[in-house]
Automatic annotation (TrEMBL), chain A:
<dbReference type="GO" id="GO:0022857">
    <property type="term" value="F:transmembrane transporter activity"/>
</dbReference>
<feature type="transmembrane region" description="Helical">
    <location>
        <begin position="109"/>
        <end position="128"/>
    </location>
</feature>
<feature type="transmembrane region" description="Helical">
    <location>
        <begin position="315"/>
        <end position="336"/>
    </location>
</feature>
<feature type="transmembrane region" description="Helical">
    <location>
        <begin position="228"/>
        <end position="251"/>
    </location>
</feature>
<keyword id="KW-0812">Transmembrane</keyword>
<dbReference type="InterPro" id="IPR001851">
    <property type="entry name" value="ABC_transp_permease"/>
</dbReference>
<dbReference type="Pfam" id="PF02653">
    <property type="entry name" value="BPD_transp_2"/>
</dbReference>
<feature type="transmembrane region" description="Helical">
    <location>
        <begin position="12"/>
        <end position="31"/>
    </location>
</feature>
<keyword id="KW-1133">Transmembrane helix</keyword>
From TrEMBL, chain B:
<feature type="domain" description="ABC transporter">
    <location>
        <begin position="6"/>
        <end position="241"/>
    </location>
</feature>
<keyword id="KW-0067">ATP-binding</keyword>
<dbReference type="InterPro" id="IPR003593">
    <property type="entry name" value="AAA+_ATPase"/>
</dbReference>
<feature type="domain" description="ABC transporter">
    <location>
        <begin position="256"/>
        <end position="491"/>
    </location>
</feature>
<keyword id="KW-0547">Nucleotide-binding</keyword>
<dbReference type="InterPro" id="IPR003439">
    <property type="entry name" value="ABC_transporter-like_ATP-bd"/>
</dbReference>
<dbReference type="Pfam" id="PF00005">
    <property type="entry name" value="ABC_tran"/>
</dbReference>
<dbReference type="InterPro" id="IPR050107">
    <property type="entry name" value="ABC_carbohydrate_import_ATPase"/>
</dbReference>
<dbReference type="InterPro" id="IPR017871">
    <property type="entry name" value="ABC_transporter-like_CS"/>
</dbReference>
Amino acid sequence: MSPRILGAASPFILTIFVFLFLAVALFIGLGQPPFQTLAVLVQFAVGDSYSLSQTMAKTTPILLCALAAAVPGRLGLISVGAEGQLHAGAIAGTALVLLAPVWPAPVLIPLMLIFAAIGGAIYGYIPGLLRARLDVNETIVTLLMNYVTVLLVAALVFGPWRDPASQGWPATMQFPPNAVLPALPGSRIHLGLLLGLVAALALHIYFNHSRWADKVRILAGNRKVGETFGLSFGFWVMVLMSVGGALAGLAGISEVSAIQGRLQQSISLGYGLTGFLVSWLSRHQPLIILPVSLCVGGLVAGSDALQMFAKVPAASAVILQGLLFAAALAVPGLLARWRKAQ
Amino acid sequence: MPESLVQFAGVTRRFGDLIAVNNASLDIRAGEVLAILGENGAGKSTLMKMLYGLYPASEGQILLDGAPAKISGPADAMRNGIGMVFQHFSLLPALSVRDNLLLSWPKTPFWKSHRNARTDDVLTSLAELAPQIDPERIVSSLSVGEQQLVELCKVLNINARLVILDEPTSVLTPAEATRLHGFIKQLAGRGVAVALITHKLADVEACADRIVVMRRGSVVDIAERGARSMAETVALMMGQSVDRTLRPPPAFGRTVPRLVLENVSAQRPDMSLQGISLSIAAGEIVGVAGVAGNGQALLAEAVAGVEPLTAGDILLDGVSIARHTPFEAVSTPLGYIPEQPRDNGVVATMSLARNLALRDLAQGKRATGRHANLLERFNVNPPDPAKLAGTLSGGNVQKLVIARELGIQRDAILACYPTMGLDLAAIEMVYAAMFAQAASGAAVLWISEDLDDLLAGSHRIAVMREGRLVALLDNDGTLSREAVGALMTGMTETEAAA
């Protein structure tokens, strides 16, 4: 390997080592045999076809939510609203299924996806509009709006949308087969993953190789210069916030339709925030977001299984994620400082 | 001869290659008001900031009570009885006047209980200076003038022997300024030395005992008040015209109005433009003179379509090019050289080639290669199109923007301080390019602080003060720096002639 590639890759390699070190320390603290537990974690993430399918299932919403943060991030906006947009998409898509449960799949599924995307887009458009017109901070607004849809889902499944046949369980009715996203047979790898892949590639091409790529880049680099040459910052804020919202909305409906099979509480295991972190770790580059969300998806799936089958507490899955992000954020900075000191 | 409190002996201060203060010698005496007069960038503030301990002197010595001063920061300066009031205040807007005063009071007890009788002493100078200000009011609710008075009280509270005021009247209403002048005289009467940094002759006339004139970093004159006429003082402040080989632009027929400003008004929190009307013909160069901070920046951004207008319109060949609401986006057809081009003219994260092609890229067109030779033509160093604009030095960023804006023929040009930070050869090149554009029919609006250059290179000179166009003069060879300078600083022409 040439020294240059090694130099560029060293933060990544070092991040992994630091994470493994921290994870080992965690397992020792928990009183588990550290290396054995690590091996089990990897086994549960990629060890067999079932584990792989679980990893892919977790990767899908993380990928879409990461893209949802990356799109406004390209303009320098900090949107933490993927969680709320995910739930908004889930509500909008579910509404259509509850309205027209008998429509044939070729009509219902595309319409359900479109509804979910529009629901998420509207939920991203609102903070975008506030930012563009009134200069209200988009980070605060998206953060606060998250609570609204999460609680709205609870209100709906406890109230008007509760399935009478569910014997008190707060959830809508089971989605009919014609409203379930197609999946690879015998696995949980569904159409949502394909949508995420396509979106990542399309965004990569749009932001890096299209004729319009530089509009966003100019505004992100120097808003005043962009406005001097006729670019409207407000317009792009609204567009990018809406597009990001639509992607998170797709994550929401695909969780409901393909994984849970019904709208209920806790359709998201904090995917919005995880996606946000993935996006910032990847510097909003769609092609980097792909492998990073796969890694994080594997970690989530692996540690989920770990807490079920090994004797580790449930919280360790979240702790492991936290350790990964802490390592990934700290290591490049420390490395740069160390190189500077040299 | 009165005893001198502070003495500057051959003090020099450099910032990199820039000499801000050059071999300055002067003294400040107890009980006098010393006015330090000069244009922007003359080195007045830098000189006083050295005394206040903000910058060390590069060369020379500052003596306090006849011994070398050991002042390494504002805290030291305050211990030595030197206080300074800055142009930008250092009050905490969310706290009350009383709390702000307590924060900088040496005698403030470690503990603080509300309305403690012992802390009422802190209000003595406030009661004297501004009895109308209620000490329990929150600072953010005070007017700018009132804030200035509170700031002054802070300085008086340290029992200052020397009070330095940096452009104190620039934010005051005339009535407030008059009251401040009276107070300054009262202070001097008590034996406190006051150093008054200003570019306003009105301040000098109202209360100075001695007048120091600075120009381009050097002290050019020290005189008692009354020893010089105001016209002589202005001449000293502006300097004699420097001989530049600036070739005047070709003659033109002032017939076709090309760039027309109709009652242009715009508003920012700190500045407003009020009804500026100006018509520039094809081939005409109109220079805008004014002391920095009198609305030139806002005028430039309004004409460039960055700042929305609150009233009026801007027409290029009869077509409006102004931004009327914050929600519309206008691509300026002007060749526009903004001030501080690193902040306002380039995208630092993009390459030189892309920065040259910004107009195309912003419209969703692909960058073409036709811009490459501009880098060589305008001497941008290094002429590497793949280099990021953020890596260039200040002067080269300026040249990059000029290459983009003047590299092709324009209908009209808006140039703000286009030669700022450039060396002589580059300045000649910029003027040559600008005048060539005018010769081919471009209307040029040229904002500059360099009166010599404006007088040598423009057909008419517009003078701006406090957001208004106060004069529009034909530059027919009879205009003097003094006359324009007087208009810039707010004297009437008769006062200047007196």
